[in-house]
């Protein structure tokens, strides 16, 4: 019996040594780690400290170890699981590990861990509770009886997202012009960031895979920029390396926006890959400020300065408002920004509106640049709008940068709209050339001219040489009225140049310029108007009428400003006068009427005249003087 016992003792010692190898921690390892004594459920989880290493063993194929920790600062943490250095036991199929949130939902997991494994960075806020679950991979075929070391290391930083930030309400607040990092934990994770602009200008979103992250990104990320209402402004899909958004003109100080990051194609996307996110803001006073879709929201812009804008979708409309500072005219210059090489599709539509919101002029399908016709509406203090929209919705110039300039020119020789009635007529002066334009087929332009004294008046209308060939259609009508709206004269269907000449007295006269026919009107065509006026000289005073043999000598006093004189004769003192002589020199102050009948009584009167630019203004007549021929 003693002999049998003596043989059994060495065997039991060997079995005990093997058991201790599997089920007890190696004392050499515990010199730098704490024994975990982990619980088998979340409720029994071992509370561990960040930065410390804990050692534990999976007892059998069904054993599970749970650990609990709480983050102490904002930043991210990483979980490291490693085979203990002093443990030479075979790991079999290794360990499984899960990282869980406070509700037990798996955030991250890994299986078949052999010698060591370190999780990706896990970005969470201060005071968040997490759990770690460790088990054998493939039951008894896994790392049963093997000692592992578990460490949760925390990195304190302000430049990482803060989970959970899966909604706009829980979005991580970030600052402009700073780079932040984030990571999608699974295929359904969504990261939201919120930023507030600090100045008027524009911003761009820069998104890229972190340079230190060499993981494959699969189908990549999706990134969207949203306004404060949660409406998508712009988005990029399937980003596999980097992406920079177009310039976004939304940066009025104090505006709130969101950036949304998600996986493209779920778990096939960029899960567990670190990304960098930067919102670059550029202070600028020459960019539009969204929203500006309506006239009431229109951006205030100055004349003679270039502004920039962008349509963010096929339904977007940009409105700008400016106020003229001088009397004259303006032109709207619109162009695709030279630095933007994006295709403009079907282009832009641009309209110019008056202060009532009525369209003055418009152009469609602009693909490169457009300059409006000269618009004579620039009386100081007048308000106008420019409206920009995509031609053909999303097929138009969406996400393309455009330049907008309202060039204003001070001048007194243009019509001043609105001048569609006599009451609003543009005042003009004789001898000066004025310019106007029929903006629409219904446009009527009125001018008024005050005449200081009797004379000759000529209105000349011409098509400007800047008009394209055959663009004036059936041309313009020119109609002249007196101050009581009585029709005086007219000339219709003027295509190149024509005029109206009339005798006038002291007073105000009106000229109306309108299209001849609405179906072939000179829309957008420029014309020039010149009023030539010649004041009639004073009436001459006959100084003497001398009877001679079969002749009469008539003398008169010189009239200042006269170019010549007309002599009229009649045999009756009150009627029947006919012009009998024209004297073409201002110095001609007498004339002898020959071949008259002796003994006959004749009556004479004289008028002076002045000739300017082909017009002859005649004075009133002198008093009638009789003479009886010898």
Write up what this structure looks like:
The chain has 630 residues and is mostly beta strands. It is 3% helix and 47% strand. The strands form ten sheets. Strands 1, 3, 5, 8, 9 and 11 form a six-stranded mixed beta sheet that branches. A five-stranded mixed beta sheet has the order 2-4-10-6-7, with no helix packed on it. Strands 12-14-19-16-17 form a five-stranded mixed beta sheet, with no helix packed on it. It is rod-shaped.
Name the features.
630 residues; five-stranded mixed beta sheet; 1 helix; 47% strand; mainly beta; six-stranded mixed beta sheet
Compose a concise summary of this entry.
With 630 residues, this protein is mainly β.
- Briefly note the structural class of the backbone: mainly beta
Largest sheet: 6 strands, mixed
Low-confidence stretches: 1-32
- Please bin the fraction of helical residues: under 10%
Distance between the termini: 197 Å
Summed over residues and divided by their number, the pLDDT gives a mean of 92
Instruction: Provide a count of the helices.
Output: 1
Radius of gyration: 48 Å
Beta-strand percent range: over 45%
The count of DSSP E runs of length 2 or more, i.e. the number of strands, is 46
Shape: rod-shaped
SSE blueprint and pairings:
Blueprint: H1 2-23, E1 34-35, E2 46-47, E3 53-57, E4 64-70, E5 75-83, E6 95-100, E7 106-113, E8 116-118, E9 122-124, E10 129-136, E11 147-156, E12 172-173, E13 179-183, E14 190-196, E15 201-209, E16 221-226, E17 232-239, E18 242-244, E19 256-263, E20 274-283, E21 299-300, E22 306-310, E23 318-323, E24 328-336, E25 348-353, E26 359-366, E27 369-371, E28 383-390, E29 401-410, E30 426-427, E31 433-438, E32 444-451, E33 455-463, E34 476-482, E35 487-494, E36 497-504, E37 507-515, E38 525-535, E39 542-548, E40 551-556, E41 564-570, E42 578-583, E43 590-593, E44 601-612, E45 615-618, E46 625-628
């Amino acid at each position: 019996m003693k002999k049998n016992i003596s043989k059994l003792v060495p065997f039991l010692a060997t079995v005990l040594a093997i058991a201790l190898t599997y089920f007890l921690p190696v004392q050499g390892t515990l010199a730098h780690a704490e024994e975990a004594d982990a619980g088998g459920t979340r409720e029994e989880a071992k509370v561990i400290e960040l930065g410390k290493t804990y050692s534990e063993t999976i007892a059998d194929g069904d054993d599970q170890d749970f650990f609990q920790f709480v983050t102490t600062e904002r930043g991210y943490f990483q979980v490291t699981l490693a085979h203990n250095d002093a443990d030479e036991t075979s790991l079999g199929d290794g360990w499984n590990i899960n990282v869980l949130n406070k509700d037990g939902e798996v955030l991250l997991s890994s299986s078949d861990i052999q010698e060591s494994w370190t999780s990706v960075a896990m970005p969470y806020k201060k005071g968040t509770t997490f759990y770690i679950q460790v088990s054998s991979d493939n039951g008894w075929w896994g790392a049963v009886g093997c000692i592992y070391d578990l460490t949760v290391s925390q990195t304190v930083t302000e430049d990482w997202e803060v989970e959970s930030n899966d909604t706009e309400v829980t979005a991580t607040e970030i600052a402009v012009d700073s780079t932040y990092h984030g990571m999608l934990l699974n295929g359904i994770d969504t990261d939201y960031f919120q930023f507030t602009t600090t100045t008027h200008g524009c911003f761009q979103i820069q998104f890229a895979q972190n340079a230190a992250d060499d993981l494959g990104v699969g189908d990549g990320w999706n990134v969207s920029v949203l306004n404060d209402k949660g409406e998508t402004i712009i988005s990029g899909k399937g980003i596999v390396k980097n992406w920079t958004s177009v310039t976004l003109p939304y940066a009025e100080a104090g505006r709130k926006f969101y950036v949304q990051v998600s996986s493209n194609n779920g778990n096939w996307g960029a899960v567990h890959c670190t990304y960098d996110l930067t919102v670059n803001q550029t202070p600028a006073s020459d960019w539009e400020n969204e929203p500006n879709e309506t006239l009431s929201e229109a951006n205030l812009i100055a004349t003679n300065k270039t502004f920039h804008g962008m349509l963010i979708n096929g339904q977007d409309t940009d409105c700008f408002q400016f106020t003229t500072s001088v009397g004259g005219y303006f032109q709207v210059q619109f162009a695709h920004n030279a630095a933007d090489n994006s295709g403009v599709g079907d282009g832009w539509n641009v309209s110019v509106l008056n202060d009532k919101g009525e369209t003055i002029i418009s152009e469609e399908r602009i693909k490169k640049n457009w300059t409006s016709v000269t618009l004579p509406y620039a009386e100081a203090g007048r308000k106008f709008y420019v409206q920009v929209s995509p031609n053909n919705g999303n097929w138009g110039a969406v996400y393309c940068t455009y330049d907008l300039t309202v060039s204003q020119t001070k001048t007194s020789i243009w019509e001043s709209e609105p001048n569609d009635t006599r009451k609003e007529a543009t005042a003009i002066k004789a001898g000066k050339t004025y310019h106007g334009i029929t903006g629409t087929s219904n446009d009527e332009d009125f001018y008024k001219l005050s005449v200081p004294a009797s004379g000759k008046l000529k209105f000349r209308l011409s098509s400007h040489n800047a008009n394209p060939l055959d663009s004036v259609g059936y041309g313009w009508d020119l109609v002249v009225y007196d101050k009581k709206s009585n029709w005086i004269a007219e000339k219709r269907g003027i295509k190149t140049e024509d005029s109206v000449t009339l005798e006038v007295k002291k007073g105000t006269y009106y000229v109306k310029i309108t299209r001849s026919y609405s179906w072939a009107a000179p829309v957008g065509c420029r014309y020039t108007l010149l009023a030539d006026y010649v004041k009639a000289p004073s009436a001459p005073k006959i100084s003497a009428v001398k009877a001679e043999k079969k002749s009469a000598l008539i003398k008169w006093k010189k009239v200042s400003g006269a170019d010549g004189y007309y002599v009229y004769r009649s045999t009756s003192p009150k009627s029947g006068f006919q012009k009998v002589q024209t004297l073409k020199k201002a110095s001609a102050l007498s004339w002898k009427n020959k071949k008259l009948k002796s003994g006959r009584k004749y009556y004479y009167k004289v008028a002076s005249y002045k000739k300017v630019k082909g017009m002859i203004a005649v004075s009133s007549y002198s008093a009638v003087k009789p003479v009886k021929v010898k």
